[in-house]
From TrEMBL:
InterPro entries, sorted: ATPase_NBD, Carb_kinase_FGGY, Carb_kinase_FGGY_CS, FGGY_C, FGGY_N
Native source organism of the sequence: Paramicrobacterium agarici
Keyword Amino-acid biosynthesis appears in the UniProt entry: no
Family: Belongs to the FGGY kinase family.
Name of the protein: ATP:glycerol 3-phosphotransferase
GO molecular function annotation: ATP binding; glycerol kinase activity
The organism's place on the tree of life at top rank: Bacteria
Matches recorded under PANTHER family: GLYCEROL KINASE, SUGAR KINASE
Length: 496
């Protein structure tokens, strides 16, 4: 039958996994994706890095499995969601940088739109707030960011999309497509009909002709015809947002799960069924996927800085490495009264405050590096806890099953800390590349190699962490966290 390749466009790496027709992970490889920060709040990548990185990682993953491109049956993509790219269709060349989901350069534009009273229109149609996190203002900015972009827009050859759309275009030589999960993160989709909204495209000043065709998550995204892939007619049969790739598998394993995918940030989701919802508590409603006639919705809470916050701690010399951050934190029993709100890139759902900044509260002469390291990890854990509890309450899960995946899920200290803060067991998936695995599994569905029943039996190993704290401890930690977040949001003088 051949093997399957799953690509995961992460925040700092592009990873490829090779999965067999019986669901075994045979090989994997990762390639670093450089991030550039030319100005405060600006985060960008080279668009070509997603293409070059995908092909290089796939080739290396195949080599690690002792396989070749001729052994591949299908190709699946898990993309970065809100990360946005613009290019000229005639040349295929980018007309600007890839704007990361972390990028905040359109904050002022979002504020202008909110000041014009347009928030209710955007929320009514898309279910989302006006925020620089979503792709709409990124697309608009890119369409006018350079002479080449403006010329492409005038000619009608401008194209915009996520990392999936650009990769698909480059691999196939012309297909301009994406899936509903990606479109739902643009703030340009009619959430009820799962189609592009011409009204929102006009409101955000995004040319309707530049937007990709919406195709089912599992389906036909063209065939690869690229000089670095020495085979012909290799189909791309799945494309999905990265966090939804793992959510799809988790829902097969447990339909009521609240799942957190940890990496550069944390993206926490639970199923919203087959009908769109528009919660008023700050949670974001997205489409999870479309497979055939089955359109699934999810609710999401998010934390912008998880791995990024730990990287900051290493960069400033607080710890020698990400691993030693946990060792350092575990060397003390408490934070010495320190509370750290890790809002380095702002506060995401449910707060939606892109201008908030990371803050350390309660610092005294007693505090040392170990206390700060513990405060950092507690801050990450409390932010994730806030989102999980809100999702569980909104979805009506009185006793939620909590699952965590991504690289940090193998960090025993962080997982035990999360269970202690939640008061619920936490099931930590031990497969670090579950997102790429999900993309490969979805590609296998599209190729007819797997059924959903097959995938329900491919549950990876996990470790369950049970809470070891009492209710008073958890409530005190959560109260102090809420107070710190409220203070951060009110403290205007520290903002740009």
């Amino acid at each position: 039958m051949g093997v399957l390749i799953g690509i995961d466009h992460g925040g700092s790496t592009t990873t490829a996994v090779v999965v067999s027709s019986d669901g075994l992970l045979l090989g994997r490889a990762s390639v670093s994706t450089e991030r550039h920060t030319p100005h405060p709040g600006w985060v960008e990548h080279s668009p070509e890095s997603f293409v070059d990185g995908s092909l290089a990682a796939a080739s290396r993953a195949l080599s690690s499995a002792g396989l070749q491109w001729s052994d591949v049956a299908a190709f699946g993509i898990a993309n970065q969601g809100e990360t946005s790219i613009a290019w000229d269709e005639a040349t295929g060349r980018p007309v600007g940088p890839a704007l990361s989901w972390q990028d905040k350069r359109t904050s002022n534009r979002c504020a202008e739109l909110r000041d014009r009273g347009l928030s209710s229109t955007v929320e009514r149609i898309s279910g989302l707030s006006i925020d620089p996190y979503f792709a709409a203002t990124k697309y608009s900015w890119l369409s006018k960011s350079s002479d080449e972009a403006r010329a492409s827009r005038v000619r009608g050859t401008l194209r915009v999309g996520g990392t999936d759309s650009f990769l698909i275009r480059c691999l196939t030589g012309g297909v301009h497509a994406t899936d509903p999960s990606t479109v739902s993160r643009t703030a340009l989709m009619d959430l009820d009909s799962a189609t592009w909204s011409s009204e929102l495209a006009g409101l955000f000043d995004v040319p309707r002709s530049a937007l990709p065709e919406i195709r089912p998550t599992v389906g036909d995204f063209g065939e690869i015809a690229h000089e670095d892939v020495p085979v012909s007619r290799l189909p791309i049969t799945a494309s999905i947002v990265d966090t939804n790739a793992s959510q799809f598998l988790h829902e097969l394993w447990s339909p009521t799960v609240v799942k957190a995918t940890l990496g550069t940030g944390a993206f926490i989701e639970t199923s919203a069924g087959n009908s769109p919802v528009r919660p008023s508590n700050g949670l974001a409603p997205f489409i999870g996927w479309r497979i055939g006639d089955d359109l699934r919705y999810v609710l999401e809470g998010s934390v912008y800085d998880v791995g990024a916050a730990v990287d900051w701690a290493v960069d400033i010399g607080l710890a020698e490495s990400a691993a030693t951050t946990s060792d350092l934190a575990a060397s003390v029993d408490d934070t010495a009264g320190v509370i750290l709100v890790p809002a380095f890139s702002g506060l995401a759902a449910p707060h939606w405050d892109s201008e908030a900044r990371a803050t350390i509260c309660g610092l005294s002469l007693k505090a040392n590096k170990a206390h700060l390291a513990r405060a950092l990890l507690e801050g990450i854990g409390l932010a994730i806890t806030e989102a999980i509890l809100l999702l569980a309450d909104t979805a009506g899960h009185d006793d939620p099953e909590v699952a965590v995946d991504g690289g940090p899920s193998r960090n025993k200290f962080l997982m035990q800390l999360l269970a202690d803060l939640l008061g619920y067991p936490v099931r930590a998936v031990q497969e670090p590349d579950i997102t790429g695995f999900g993309a490969a599994c979805l590609a296998g569905l599209g190729k007819g190699i797997f059924t959903q029943a097959d995938l329900a039996n491919l549950r990876p190993d996990s470790i369950t962490y049970s809470p070891m704290t009492n209710t008073a401890f958890r409530e005190d930690k959560r109260r102090l966290w809420r107070d710190a977040v409220d203070w951060v949001r009110k403290e205007e003088r520290f903002r740009d």
